[in-house]
Write a structure and sequence with these properties.
heterodimer; A: 167 residues; alpha/beta; 7 helices; 19% strand; B: alpha/beta; Aconitase, domain 3; 18 strands
Chain lengths: 167, 414
């Protein structure tokens, strides 16, 4: 798995799925179209300024609220490299892994004093997040989760392995 | 073991399980709502051919009910076709009500069941003694294909509610108080159990409110030990009494938190955040719309409380009062009890049983600069429409008092 490199977009605590993907767009089903509205409730300019590999940084409880999978589909199809947050809401976390979106829990994020706009390197296998002249470490993701992420989501693995694809 | 662990052990064919362990469990009741055409898409992308257990699978059209746009109508059409193709008989189409209430009323949910729905408020059903949790579309598609899903066995936080409720105080005020104290991320990946004198005396519909909003603390599931009140409530829906799994006396809770309920007055979650909770402010906060409804606050007891407050009175000029019963059965019961007549006469506006404007899709969304008082569970920016609108989350009693007054108003000040 390659090191993820991109610009940091910073958000606060309790970024809920209504902010990640507002309810008025839930009827949309096309993944590319969903991506054009991602993060709109928190930063309306996000989808037009995000570049492939950019890293969304959140505080505590990222992805709380509604179970809508659009939130993850939007971030994935906007080609966000990873979401790094102090903690995640559990449905969002499960949805993210199913779609192969890199989600890293790093409770020590404040040690980097990020302001947003910095360039960052995220080494998922080593468990390192480097940005703003600092470095933090986090426990590497479990092997089965890495396998799902490298396969781009659970879909192709499940086709061949059924429920054992989850490890 | 905790009762929830016993439920998970049984469903995963294990003697015992403990917190942190990953289990693959059979799902007794699966439900997909009409926001989730992605379930059908993920089903085929995962290689699905047939639904493993069509008799255990339910579709409920509640979020866009009836369809508010052509796209929503198309999504529902594809889902109806999917149900037909897969021999899924339990398609609860528009107007039947909100999924959690509809499944309860159908006699499908009760103590010991594993219930998974594509809706975060599935925690509501833990009040019936089920292991009930929400998932996204792809997890649900896995259930449709295999009949199973993996779960991490959660630690359990026990919240003990002791004392008697004050006049005008409802379960909603209690849970707002708890969330205001513990905050939105207090129970991530954990289960929350409610117990104590106050819970034991609570009618079932009020217990459902506690478990419904446990997800607003991040809870994976919520739980209330089933008793005669639970079983009496379920009896009407044809639920047959059976063995009830109980928590062992030596079970080691993650934490135990006690509250003295007798000190609690009516509460409000102020705009923007469900854990920003205070007593009802004394200043004059003018309200444009009051919404009574949702899986949190649209059941018969909620409508009864509102009707008693508004009986023979009128909604304040300049304030809109939108009422949406949680299900067709609730609507019918409220009609027979005379509550609908009372509320209509008072100036309420009714809409089809379902989620209504709670998620900002239709039937009463709010404009920039407007203020809404709601019996729902979420007041994130933009939740019910414009991101520049304000949402105050309250109990049904406070909502009715506010409708009468036109400004945010505590029921104990009437």
């Amino acid at each position: 798995m390659e090191v993820i490199k991109g610009k940091v977009f910073i958000f606060g605590n309790n970024i809920d799925t209504d902010q990640i993907y507002p309810g008025r767009y839930i009827e949309l089903t096309d993944h590319e179209e969903i991506a054009t509205h991602v993060m709109e409730g928190a930063d309306p300019s996000f989808s037009s300024s995000v570049k492939p590999g950019d890293i969304v940084v959140g505080g505590k409880n990222f992805g709380c609220g509604s179970s809508r999978e659009h939130a993850v589909i939007g971030l994935k199809n906007a080609k966000v490299g990873a979401v790094v947050a102090k903690s995640f809401a559990r449905i969002f976390f499960r949805n993210a892994i199913n779609h192969g979106l890199v989600v890293i829990e790093a409770p020590n994020l404040d040690d980097l004093s990020l302001k947003g706009g910095e360039y960052a390197k995220l080494d998922v296998l080593k468990g390192e997040f480097i940005s703003g002249g600092g470095k933090i470490t986090f426990p590497p993701l479990p092997v089965n989760v890495i396998e799902i992420i490298e396969a781009g989501g659970i879909f192709s693995l499940f086709k061949t392995k059924g429920v054992s694809a989850f490890g | 073991m905790h009762a929830l662990e016993k439920i998970l052990s049984r469903a995963s064919g294990k003697e015992r399980v403990s917190a942190g362990e990953i289990v693959m469990a059979d799902v007794d009741v699966a439900e997909v709502n009409d926001l989730y055409l992605q379930v059908v898409r993920s089903f085929y992308e995962l290689g699905g051919k047939r639904v493993a257990r069509p008799d255990h699978t339910n579709f409920v059209f509640d979020h866009y009910s009836p369809a508010s746009t052509i796209k929503a109508a198309e999504n529902q059409k594809v889902m109806r076709e999917f149900c037909q193709l897969m021999d899924i008989k339990n398609l609860f189409d528009i107007g039947e009500g909100i999924c959690h209430q509809v499944l309860t009323e159908s006699g499908l949910v009760g103590p010991g069941k594993i219930v998974v729905e594509t809706d975060s408020h599935t925690t509501t059903l833990g009040s019936l003694g089920a292991f009930a949790t929400g998932v996204g579309a792809t997890d649900m598609a896995v259930i449709l294909i295999s009949g199973k899903l993996w779960f991490k066995v959660p630690k359990v936080i026990r919240i003990v509610l002791e004392g008697k409720l004050n006049e005008g105080v409802m379960a909603k005020d209690i849970i707002l108080h708890v969330i205001g104290d513990l905050k939105q991320d207090a129970a991530i990946y954990k289960a929350v159990e409610f117990s104590g004198e106050c819970v034991q005396e609570m009618p079932q519909e009020e217990r459902m409110v506690l478990c419904n909003m446990a997800v607003e603390m991040g809870a994976k599931t919520a739980y209330i030990a089933p008793d005669e009140i639970t079983l009496d409530y379920l009896a009407r829906f044809g639920w047959e009494k059976g063995e009830i799994l109980t928590t062992d006396l030596d079970y080691d809770y993650d934490s135990i938190i006690e509250y003295d309920i007798s000190t609690i007055r009516p509460k409000v979650a102020l705009p923007g955040s469900v854990d920003n909770v205070s007593e009802i402010p004394s200043e004059n906060i003018r309200i444009d719309q009051v919404f009574l409804g949702t899986c949190t606050g649209g059941r018969l007891n909620d409508i009864r409380v509102a009707a008693e407050i508004l009986k023979g009175r009128k909604v304040a000029p300049g304030t809109r009062f939108v009422v949406i019963p949680a299900s067709k059965m609730v609507f019918h019961d409220a009609l027979k009890a005379g509550y609908i007549d009372t509320l209509l006469s008072a100036g309420a506006v009714f809409s089809t049983p379902g989620c209504g404007p709670c998620l900002g899709a239709h039937e009463g969304v709010i404009a920039a600069g407007e203020r809404c008082v709601s019996t729902s569970s979420r007041n994130f920016p933009g939740r019910m429409g414009s991101t520049d609108a304000e949402i105050y989350i309250v109990s049904p009693a406070t909502a009715a008092a506010t409708a009468l007054n036109g400004s945010l108003c505590s029921p104990d000040s009437l």
